[in-house]
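Lab notes, practical 5.
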Amino acid sequence: MIQYVLLFSRQGKVRLQKWFNAVSLKEKKKIMREVISTILSRRSKMCNILEYKDLKIVYKRYASLYFLAAIEPGDNELITLEVIHRFVELLDKYFGNVCELDIIFNFEKAYYVLDEFMLGGCVQETSKKQINKAIASADMLQEETENPKATQTLLEEMGLL
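Output from the prediction step:
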């Protein structure tokens, strides 16, 4: 099971973090500082898997962003790399070749993609088509609620007005 997911830049700035179990803010900051500095100090040809305390850290660099997942010792590292890659594919599909600026300016969408993909540290949906359909319908709903006339029409259709 994945314990947490981090996205951070080559400069060490955290762009997205998702913790799947309760950890104090002080401990989160300590973990992020140690793990990020360890990964950034590694050479590019080194293994993408390392041990940190009682967890295994699996990471992959895509362009200027590092995608990291912390897993339990008994979990499969290669499957975790596949999970990271699937998340990147989903972000690419949504943003059209995702970059760091997409994550910075649309962080709520990136979190939504992650939430559709994972639940409680486990993959809840593997189909890219299903996830993209859920994201598209949520975007459509958001657009409808931002337009007051469309909202009124929607409420009338539902028989609430």
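Observations recorded by the TA: Residues 103 and 110 are 6 Å apart (CA to CA). The chain has a mean pLDDT of 91.
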